[in-house]
User: Fold these one by one.
Assistant:
Number 1:
Amino acid sequence: MSQTDFLYLMPLLILTFAVLVSMLVIAAWRNHKIIYVITALSFIAAFGSLFELRTTTAYVIEPMFVIDGFGVFYIGMILLTSLLVSMLSYAYFEQREERKEEYYLLLVLATLGACVLVISTHFASLFLGLEILSISLYALIPYLRTRPRSDEAGIKYLILAAFSSAFMLFGMALVYFSTGTMMFSGLAQSIAGMQELPLLLLTGIGMILIGVGFKLGIVPFHMWTPDVYEGAPAPVTAFIATVSKGGVLGLLVRFFMEVDGFRYPVLITIFTVVAITSMFAGNLLALIQKNVKRILAYSSISHLGYILVAFMAGNQMGVEAITFYLVAYFITSVGAFGVVAMLSDKDSDAELLDDYKGLLWRRPWTAAVFSAMLLSLAGIPLTAGFVGKFYIIAAGINDQLWLLVVMLVLNSVIGLYYYIKIIAVMFQQPETEREPGTRLRPSIYVASAGTLAVLALLLVYVGVYPTGLVQLIQNVLVSVPEIVAK
Amino acid sequence: MILVWLIVILMAGGLLAWLSKKVSPELPRWVALGAVLLDLILIVYLWISTEATTGSAWLLRYDIPWIPQWGVSFSLALDGLSLLMLLLTFFLGLLSVLISWKEIKTKVGFFHFNLLWVLAGIAGVFLTMDLFLFYFFWEVMLIPMYFLIGVWGHENRTYAAFKFFLFTQASGLFMLLAILGLYFIHGSETGNYTFNYFQLLNTPLAPDAARLLMFGFLAAFLVKLPVVPFHSWLPDAHSQAPTAGSVILAGLLLKTGAYGLLRFVVPLFPTAAVEFAPWAMLLGGIGILYGAIVAYSQTDLKRLVAYTSVSHMGFVILGVFAFNEWALQGVVMQMIAHGLSTGALFILAGFLYERLHTRDLAQMGGFWSKAPKMGVVALVFVMATLGLPGLGNFIAEFLTLVGSWQAANWLTVFATIGIVLATAYSLRIMQKVFYEPGPQQESFHDLNFREMLIAVPMVLGLLWLGLYPQPIIDMARPSIKEQLQAYNMEGPTIAEPKTAVVQPQPGATIDAEQLAINQRAFSNLQIFQSPK
C-alpha cells in the first residue's frame, strides 16, 4: 500500500482507531460522556477527512476498493447519520441503567462495516464489510437485554443473518467457479459477451442477491424486519433502517452498474416482482399494526420497494433518484425513530399508538416534528420525501416503467392511510390527562431536541429547495464512469 | 413580486398566528384577520390598477428558477381568471376568519395557522404557471384542510377527514403521473425539459398519449370538483368540517377543480377534450339532477347544502366541455356566485348550529318571527341558490345553459330541469327552518353585529353579481378567449406573457371599452356558433 492509499482510506482508519481508543478508555475508566464524545468526534473527524479526498476521478486501491464520488457521498451520508444516531443514543441510554459504553464501540464498528460496503469492488471486501456490520448488529439489537422482546429480536436476526451470509458465500463461490474472478470488474468482463447467463452463474448471482435482499429487508426476505425493529432499542432501529440498509443498497447499485445486470431480462423480472411485492406487502401489513415501531418497519419494506423502482431504471437518473431518496429517507427515519427514542421511558419504548394519543397537545413541538417526518414518509410536499418520491417517479417514467410507477402511486395512497392514522391519533384529545413523564436533565434533553430540530429543518429545506442536493449528487456521480455511461 | 407577496403574507401570517397564541389567546384571530385583509387590499388594488388593460390577457408575471436541473421554476402569473379567483379566495378567507371568532375556542393558534395555509395553497394554485409548482400547491392545501376537519370538526370528523384526504390525494397522484408524462414527452420531442405551462401548451401529442394524460389531470379535477361517481367524500367532509372549513371547502377548494379544468385540461389537450366532451357533459347533467334529488331528501342542513354543491358543480363541467365563450363565462360566474351562495348557506348553518347545537332540520322551525334579520338574510341566500334573477347564480346558470345548448341540446334540457329541482330543495330549507312550526327554542337571538358584518357583504356581493356582472365578465374575457384559442384556429395558441408589468391604459379608453363589450359579446356568439 502506498501513502496515498492511506490517505484515501483515512475515514475508515479513523473509525478503526476510534474503536481501539474507546476500548482502551473503557478498560481504564468507564464514563458514558467521555466515550460518547470520542465517538462523536471520530465521526466528525472521519467526515472531515472526506473533504481531503479528490473525487473528480475514481481512485482504485487494487483489488479491494474504489474511492469515487459515489462512494464518498455514501460514506459521508453514513457517517452523518451515525453521528445523529449517536446523539440520539446519548439521551436514550443515559436514562437506562445498563452498561452503556460498549454500545458506542459497536455503533462505530457497524458504521465502519457499512462504509467498507459502499466502496468495495471485490467479493472479499464486500463480505468483510457485511460481516463487520452484521456482527456488530448481532450485539446491538439485543443490547438492552433485560427487555422482554430483545432476545427474541437478537436471535432472530442472528440466525437469519447467518443464513443469508452463508447463501452469499456460496453464491460467491459459484460465481468464482464460473468466472475465475472475485472482482466486480472481472466478473463484468467475463460476462460482457454473454447474451444469457449460464445457469451456474445465475444461481451464484441469485444467491448473492438473496444475501443482499435479506439485509435490505425486501420481500420475500422481510420476515425479520418487524420483530427486530420492535425488539431493538429505538436508536439501533434507526441505525438498521438507515445505515445498514443504505450501505447495502450502495453496494447493490455499484455491483449492478459495474456488471450491467440490467441487460438480463431474468434479473429484471426478479427485481420487478420483488419491488411490487415489497411495496404491497409492506403497506398492506402496516395497515393492521398497532405498534408504531412495527408500522415503521413495514413502511420501510415498502420504501425499499419504491427505491427499487428507481433502481430498475438502471441509468444515471435512477442512481440520482436512489441517492436523493436515500438522503430523504435517512433524514426521515432518523427523525421518526428519534422521536420514538425521545418519548421512551426507562422500561419500554414509546411504541404503542396509545402512547401517542394527544401528543400534539402535550408536547406540540415533538408532535409537529413527528408529523413532519410521517408526512415526508407519505411523500407530501414541503418535505424531502415528496421530492424524493417525485424523483423516483420521474426516473421510472423516464425509463417507461409504467407498471412499476402505477404500482408505486397506488401504494403511496395505501401508505398514506397509516401515516395519517398516526397523525390522527396524535391530535385526538386524551381522555385522561396523563401526568407528564419525568423530564431528563436539561442538557441531555437539549441534545436530543436539538438533533430533532436539525433534522426537521433539513427535511423542510430539502423539500422546499432541493436544487443544492440535486446538484451535489449530480456532481459526485460524474466521477463514476459506469453510471455516467448509461 | 406582488404575486409572491400574496402567498408569503398568508404563510408568514399563519406562522405568526400560531406563535402569537403564546402572547394572548385572542391575538391569532387579529393576526389572521390582518393577513387576509392585507391580501384582499392588495388584490383589489391590482384589480383597480389593471382594469383598463387591453391586449394580452396576462397582467403580471413573476418567474425565478427553482430547481433548474429539472426545468422547474417558481413561476407565478396573473390573468383575469386568476384575479377573480383570488378575489373570491381572500373575500371568503376574511369571512372564514370572522365566523370562527366565536365558534373556535380550542387551539386558536393552530386553527388560524391551518386556515391561512389552506388559503395560501389555494392562492398558489390559482397563480402558478409551472406544473411542478402547481402540484406542490395542490398538495399544500390538503394537509391543513385535513387538520381543520379532523381537529375542529363535528362528531364524525376523523372518518370525514380521512376520506377527504385519501380521495383528493389519490386523485392528485394520478395528476402527478400525467404531469410527469407530459414533461417527458415534451422533453423528448423538443429537447427542452421543462414544467413551464406556456411551453408545455404546444406539445405535440399522439392521440393515445393525449387521452391518457388528460385522464390523469381529469382524475384530480373531477374528484375535487366533484363529479358524480367521485363525489362521496364531499357530503362527509362538508358536513363534518367547522363552519370556516365548510366555507373554504365549498367556496374555494371545489373551485380549484373547476379552475384546473379551465386552465389545464381545456388548453393542453384540445383534441382529447373534444372527444371526451359528450361524456363529461353527461356526467355534468347526471350530477345536476342527482345532487338536487339527493339534496332534497337530506335531514342534516349541512349535508343538504353539500349536495347542492354537487348539483351546482354539474353546471361547471357542463359549461367547461361546451367549449364556447358563453358557457365558459357562465362557468366563471358560477364559480364565484356558487362560492358566495354556498358559503353563505354554510355560514347560515353555522349561525344556527351556534344557537341550537344541531344541524338536524327536524329540530328547527319557526325562526322567522324570532329572528327576522336572519330570516331575510337567509331568504336572499336561498333565492340565490335556486337561481332567482337578480342574484349571481342566475347569471351564471343562464350563461352556462345558453352556451351548453349549442353543444348538447338534450343535456341542457335536463340541466334546466335541475334548476327547477333547485327551487324545490332551496324552498325546503326556508320552509323547514323559518316557516314551519318547530320545537320551542327558548333563547334564540337574532343576528348580532359581527354576524351582520359577515352576512351583509355576502348579500351585497350576490346582488352585485346578479345586477351588474359586467366587470366580472370583462375581467374574465381575455383569459377565456385564450383558453379557447386552440378550438377556434390553427397555429400558435396562448402567447407567453412578458415578465414586465403591463402598464394601465389612460382612462379615456375605459368608456369605449365598456361600451363595446355587449356588442362584442354578441358578435362572438356567432363566431363560436359556426359549425366546423
Number 2:
Amino acid sequence: MNYLILNGNPSGGKGNIDRYIESLADKMRSAGHNTEVIVLRNLKIRPCIGCFNCWVKTPGTCSIRDNAAEVSRKYIAADHVIIASPLIMGFLSSLMKNTMDRNLPLVHPHLEEIDGEVHHKKRYDKYPIISFLLEKEACTDEDDIAIASDIFRREAINVRASLGFIHFTETPVQEVLHAIDVH
Amino acid sequence: MQLTFINGSPRGKKSNTARLMGHFLRGFMETPGNTSEIDYLTKHRQDINLLTETFAMAENVIIGFPLYVDAMPGSVKEFLEALAPLAGKKDNPALGFMIQCGFPETSHNRYVARYCEKFTQRMGCLSLGSILKGGCEGLDVQPDFLTDKYYAFFYMLGVEFGKTGKFDPAMLEKLARPEHLNAGNMTQIIPFINQALWDVQMENNGVLDKSFDKPLNP
C-alpha cells in the first residue's frame, strides 16, 4: 500500500497539524507503510481557471504549468490519500481546495449515473481511498463538522474515490493509525 | 437599494455565472433608485483587500460562483478567508450567494449552500439565502428554449429582489428544477450531454480518439 499525505496548512508553525502529520507519518513508516508527505505551501499551485483544456484539448493533461500535475501524478498512484488541512472559516484551506480543483484532469468529462445522480466517468482504472484529517478552529461547532463532512462525502463520489475516514487532530495518532489500517 | 455582485467565477466576464447574473441585475435595476455594481474576483486575486473593502462598503452583496468539486472554487475560498477580519462587524452587508453547476440536477449545489449559510452567520451578516441552478455548463451551446427560460427566471428574481430585498422562495424552487433527474430523463440527457457538449469539442480539437488518455499513469 502506498500512502500520500497532503499537508494543506497554509502557514507553517501555526497550530498543531504540521507536528501531528509528522508524527503520524513517522508511525506509519515504522508500521511498514510506504508514506509520502507533500507540504503544499512549498509548491506553486495556481487556481483552476475552468478552461476545460484537460478534457477537450489535451485529455488528461492540465494546461497550467506549475506543480499541480506532480501532485496529481502522486495522487493517482497512491492507494490511500490523506487530505490534511486546518479548517479555515469552516472549510478546507484555499490552498487545499485549489489543489483538489486541479485534480480535474483525473476524471473524464462524460457523465454517468451513480446511485440516481449524475457524476463524471472515470479516466483511470483505479482511484485512491481519500480520508480527511482536520484541525478545528476555536469556533468549530457540530454544524460545521456536519456541513464539511457532508461535502467530503460528496467529493469522494465525484472524484470516484471511496471515503476512508474523517478525523480531527484531537484524535490520538494511534487511533488514526488504526483507521488507516482498517481502510 | 444598493447591490454589489461579486463574480467569483475563474472565467470572469465570460462565465456562465456572469451571463445568468447579468439578467438578475437587469431585473434589479428596474426599480427606480436602485444602484448596482459588479466586481470580478479574477481582477483582484493579487490584491484581495480592494475586494474586501468593496464588500465592507456595500449594503447588499451577492457572491456568485460555479460549483468546483462539490464546493466553492479554491479562488473563492481565498476571498472568503480574506473576509475573516470583518466577521461580526456591525455594518456588514446583507449577504447572499448564487451557485450554479454543470451537472443537470440542482441537488449538487445544496451541500455548499449549507456552507454558505453558515459562513453568512459566521460573518454576522443578514442572510439573503442562495440562488441555486443546475444544468449551466455550456450555456452558449444549449438550445435557446432552455437558456431563455433560465434567463427569464433570473430576470424575475432580480426584479423581485429589487423591490423587496428578498429572493422569492417560490421562484427559487422553480428555478432549481430539475432538483433530481428521474431514470427516464437520465437515459436521455446523459448521452446527449456527452455527445453534444463534450465529444463535439474534442472532435473539433482533433482529440476524440485520445478522449480516455491516461497521461499520468506510471
